[in-house]
Design goal:
- This is Coenzyme A biosynthesis bifunctional protein CoaBC.
- In the N-terminal section; belongs to the HFCD (homo-oligomeric flavin containing Cys decarboxylase) superfamily. In the C-terminal section; belongs to the PPC synthetase family.
- Pathway: Cofactor biosynthesis; coenzyme A biosynthesis; CoA from (R)-pantothenate: step 2/5; Cofactor biosynthesis; coenzyme A biosynthesis; CoA from (R)-pantothenate: step 3/5.
- With about 400 residues, this protein is α/β, with parallel strands linked by helices.
- The chain folds into 2 domains: about 10-180, Flavin prenyltransferase-like (Rossmann fold, 3-Layer(aba) Sandwich); about 190-410, CoaB-like (Rossmann fold, 3-Layer(aba) Sandwich), CATH 3.40.50.
- Helix content is about 35%, strand content about 25%.
- It has helices at about 20-30, 50-60, 75-80, 90-100, 105-115, 125-130, 130-145, 170-180, 215-225, 240, 260-270, 310-320, 340-355, 395-410; strands at about 10-15, 35-40, 85-90, 120, 145-150, 150-155, 160-165, 190-195, 200, 205, 230-235, 250-255, 275, 285, 305-310, 330-335, 360-365, 375-380, 390-395.
- It has an 8-stranded mixed β-sheet, with helices on both faces. Strands 2-1-3-4-5 form a 5-stranded parallel β-sheet, with helices on both faces.
- Helix 1 links the parallel strand 1 (about 10-15) and strand 2.
- It starts with 8 loop residues before the first strand and ends with a helix.
- The chain binds flavin mononucleotide.
């Protein structure tokens, strides 16, 4: 299983087509998702996008030759160590060579030496794609278990159009993640709350928090990739962040306030096997919401009376305790901590987990480098008796994988 303790090594082969510029974005997406990426271009590919770009993005040396780094037997080591090999774009020429098992460059030897899944993203002119030789090669490769993503029907280089356009980087990423993910959440219904609630004061102002929703969305995307059927209760998440949750098995329910989030979560949790409360929910809301904008002149903005919001996670745990949830439902809550003292943090986590009645508490270190609005996160996952069952830091996807692994092992 590809859990958080194992680095996922992905080789991205790049061959000589114009679509290589789109692979730049793919490499960024893969590294952003927390994967270790080594780029293996062909000589022709380097005429389209050069070595410095690949090295800077992947943070690994890049070569096309089997004669570099011979001490580490690089020509086979890359393929042996890979969890996945992607070739994007895959030219007609390289597809033919892969079919024939030709190994006259580093990409060829890597592909022969690997036992990992291979994903090709073909890109070429429509005539080249339709050509009987290419089609026969593709048929042979797929019969051997090689996976394909695309090509799409659309605009091609030089103004032509037809089948042969390389799949978009996001699609290739999705196909790659699907191949990598253990399908260990297949058949399970997961509900994730994500984002931050906003409690209106008047028509233009609200009490809010700095949660972007990235961690919750990463959890939703990773759970879907592992086979789960996912509902995201999304509180005020930007379209940009929500784009990562585009998956046929993810349903998004937008909400605004803590009360709306509570209603949506209670409804969704009634049929959920796993509930993850990653949203930052306001503890209090203004006692009254003004219909009209409050003005300075009226002196109405110097004081705000607050009332307490319902504790959603505690309500969900109580519901489960009363048997109003599927048998064996797992509930995960989050706690943001600013304390740098691990002993104090863990003691608070132990008490909070018990008070809320949840199975796991992901203690989120919110400081200058991690947490709210940041791309990276660091968590300690606290289970029964306050024991730290797992910890993870890095991208929010790496943290999501650790949380899902912890849920999986406790179920
Ligand atoms: C501007 C330009 C664009 C090209 N685009 C493609 C392409 O999209 N698909 C393809 O199969 N070949 C394309 N070719 C041809 C390949 O670059 C050529 O077949 C080359 O030998 C491929 O080598 P490689 O597979 O080792 O990278 C293109 C060539 C040029 C000059």
């Amino acid at each position: 299983m590809l859990g958080q303790n194992r680095t996922v090594n992905i080789v991205v082969g790049v061959t000589g087509g114009i679509a290589a510029y789109k692979t730049v974005h793919l490499v960024r997406l893969l590294t952003k998702a927390g994967h270790d990426v080594t780029v293996v271009p062909t000589e022709d590919a380097l005429r389209f996008v050069g070595t410095p770009t690949w090295e800077a993005l992947s943070r690994h040396p890049v070569t096309t030759s089997v004669h570099d780094d011979v001490a580490r037997v690089r020509h086979v080591a890359l393929g042996q160590g890979a969890n996945l090999v992607i070739v994007a774009p895959a030219t007609a020429n390289s597809i033919a060579k892969i079919t024939a098992g030709i190994a006259d460059n580093l990409l060829g030897t890597t592909l022969l030496a690997t036992e990992a899944p291979v994903l090709l993203a073909p890109a070429m002119h429509a005539e080249m794609w339709r050509n009987a030789a290419t089609q026969a090669n593709i048929a042979t490769l797929t019969s051997r278990g090689v996976h394909l993503v695309g090509p799409a029907d659309g605009e091609l280089a030089g103004g032509d159009s037809g089948p042969g356009r390389m799949a978009e980087p996001e699609q290739i990423l999705e196909a790659a993640l699907a191949l990598l993910a253990p399908r260990d959440l297949e058949g399970l219904r997961v509900v994730v709350s994500a984002g931050g609630t906003r409690e209106p004061i008047d028509p233009v102002r609200f009490l809010g928090n700095r949660s972007s929703g990235r961690q919750g969305i990463a959890l939703a995307a990773d759970a879907a990739a592992r086979g789960a059927d996912v509902t995201v209760v999304a509180a005020n998440i930007s379209a940009d962040v929500l784009a990562d949750a585009r998956h046929p098995s993810i349903r998004v329910l937008p909400v605004g306030t803590a009360a709306e989030l509570a209603d949506a979560m209670k409804e969704a949790a009634r049929a959920a096997d796993i509930v993850i409360m990653a949203a930052a929910v306001a503890d209090y809301r203004p006692a009254t919401v003004s219909e009209h904008k409050l003005t300075k002149e009226q002196g109405l903005l110097t004081r705000l009376d607050l009332v307490e919001n319902e504790d959603v996670v505690a309500a969900l745990a109580a519901s489960r305790a009363e048997g109003r949830a599927p048998h064996g439902q797992t509930i995960v809550a989050f706690a943001a901590e600013t304390s740098e003292d691990p002993v104090e943090r863990r003691e608070r986590a132990r008490r909070k987990r018990e008070r809320k009645g949840v199975d796991l508490l992901a203690v989120n270190l919110a400081n200058a480098d991690h947490g709210f609005e940041k791309r990276d996160n660091a968590v300690e996952i606290v289970g029964g008796g306050g024991a730290v069952v797992s910890s993870a830091s890095g991208s929010k996807h790496a943290v999501a994988r650790a949380i899902l692994d912890a849920v999986r092992s406790m179920r």
